[in-house]
UniProtKB/TrEMBL annotation, chain A:
Gene Ontology molecular function, alphabetical: DNA binding
Name of the protein this chain belongs to: Transcriptional regulator
Keyword Cytoplasm: no
Family statement: Belongs to the BlaI transcriptional regulatory family.
Taxonomy, superkingdom: Bacteria
InterPro entries in the record: BlaI_family, WH-like_DNA-bd_sf, WH_DNA-bd_sf
UniProt entry keywords in alphabetical sequence: DNA-binding, Transcription, Transcription regulation
SUPFAM superfamilies (UniProt xref): Winged helix' DNA-binding domain
From TrEMBL, chain B:
A Pfam family assignment: Peptidase_M48
Keywords for the protein's UniProt record, in alphabetical order: Hydrolase, Membrane, Metal-binding, Metalloprotease, Protease, Transmembrane, Transmembrane helix, Zinc
Domain of life: Bacteria
GO molecular function terms noted in the UniProt entry: metal ion binding; metalloendopeptidase activity
Keyword field contains Zinc: yes
Protein name: Peptidase M48-like protein
Similarity section: Belongs to the peptidase M48 family.
Domain Peptidase M48: 117-187
Transmembrane segments: 6-24, 36-59, 79-105, 272-294
GO BP terms: proteolysis
Length: 109, 304
């Protein structure tokens, strides 16, 4: 996905494999399987181009980032339980009260 | 017996209406584990009582015979209607609970899978901490139940000291080890199944808060109260200006205050009493049914 995002254009399995193999040694079928899986699960689209498929990401990195952030920060009750968050959002008044409480105990680190 | 049915219905109604007030009292939060046990046994008790009440309506000797005659058609239309209600009401109750629990769990699984995929695509694994780190400035930390993964944002790592970080990780590991998400999901499902019942509404909110307190308590075995409190404060306060605010009812402040000035643990007698109450709450609705059936079904030993 990283390669496809940074290229910003559709690519065939061979392109991705050649690029990946600059750093490590992967088999053609491995990359093909991964890309096929990503396509089946709806992360990549593909178009037939001669004997091969040309793959492109469904959404940009920014779009996925935005989705991820929405999920992380959603404090609504509907999201509760999917993820267990360390701390929920606090109101400014509450934040003040928390800082006061900490200060009254002195530097606690 | 109809008396037993009335008693059971009344018991369920009173418990569902009155228990949230008692269960929300401050002293109970001194032991989150007990508070959770009491909340959930109250809920189970109300469910059991309502189901058994409808069963009791028809388990009465005369009515049971009426029900049997309804099946062979000899008591006419009213008998068939009564018999249908006797079967339908408990089935609908149990079915509704089962369905929503299943829906909630399925939705959570789908959302978590998608979320993990996103984390995998956009983040990287930090082997030293054993967590996934996503490149975002907003400080956030959470665990993804089911996958045992803990996720931190870069922003969180930036603002936390080593000790605070250790406290955050211990807190999230406590959630995962205690399978707190199952309690939260169950409370969530009950609230969705019966949104008008006060007990279930209150229980959903309390469960979410109490599992945090429980995880805080368990964190104290591995990290100091001070570092956990300052981590909570740092993470909570850092996020304030950036996001639309949803009131949390002061739950974060409660957690910090509780860590800085821990309440005395509950006396042993109180704890035993509360544990006993939790068990009796579940057992209570079953009792009249046991008496009823013991009175009506002849014990095989009489014949031997």
């Amino acid at each position: 996905m990283d390669r496809l995002w940074s290229w910003g254009r559709p690519a065939i399995v061979r392109d991705v494999l050649d690029d990946l193999n600059k750093e490590r040694d992967l088999a053609y079928t491995t990359v093909m399987t991964v890309m096929d899986n990503l396509h089946r699960k709806g992360w990549l689209t593909r178009e037939r181009d001669g004997r091969a498929y040309r793959y492109a990401p469904v959404a940009t990195r920014q779009q996925y980032n935005a989705e991820l952030m929405r999920e992380i920060l959603a404090d609504s009750g509907d999201q509760a339980g999917t993820l267990l968050r360390f701390v929920e959002t606090v109101t400014p008044e509450e934040a003040d009260a928390i800082r006061r409480a900490l200060r009254s105990r002195g530097p606690g680190r | 017996m109809t008396t037993i049915a009335t008693v059971l219905f009344g018991y369920a109604a009173v418990l569902a209406a009155a228990s949230p007030r008692f269960l929300s009292s401050q002293w109970l939060a001194r032991s989150p584990r007990l508070a959770l046990a009491l909340w959930h046994s109250c809920a189970v008790s109300v469910l059991l009582a309502s189901i058994l009440a409808t069963v009791a309506c028809y388990a009465d000797d005369g009515l049971l015979r009426g029900w049997l005659t309804a099946i062979d058609g000899s008591s006419g239309v009213p008998g068939i209607v009564a018999a249908a209600v006797a079967v339908l009401v408990p089935t609908v109750l149990i079915g509704r609970v089962t369905l929503t629990v299943w829906q909630v769990l399925a939705r959570h699984r789908v959302e978590r899978d998608r979320h993990l995929k996103l984390v995998c695509l956009l983040g990287r694994h930090d082997h030293r901490l054993g967590v996934d780190v996503i490149p975002a400035d907003v400080p956030a930390a959470y665990c993804v139940p089911g996958s045992k993964q803990i996720v931190l944002t870069k922003g969180a790592i930036a603002i936390l000291s080593d000790n605070e970080l250790r406290a955050v990780l211990a807190h999230e590991r406590a959630h995962l080890a205690g399978r707190h998400h199952l309690l939260v999901a169950w409370a969530d499902a009950l609230q969705k199944a019966f949104p008008r019942v006060r007990l279930f509404n209150a229980m959903q909110q309390s469960t979410a808060h109490l599992v945090e307190l429980l995880a805080d308590d368990q964190t104290l075995r591995r990290a100091s109260a001070e570092s956990l409190a300052s981590a909570i404060a740092a993470m909570g306060c850092a996020r304030t200006p950036t996001i639309a605010l949803a009131a949390t009812g002061g739950s974060v402040l409660t957690r910090v205050e509780r860590l800085l000035a821990p309440p005395a643990p509950l006396p042993v007698a109180t704890r035993l009493g509360a544990a006993g109450a939790a068990i009796s709450l579940v057992a209570l609705p079953i009792l009249p049914i046991l008496i009823l059936t013991a009175g009506h079904i002849p014990c095989p030993h009489f014949f031997s």
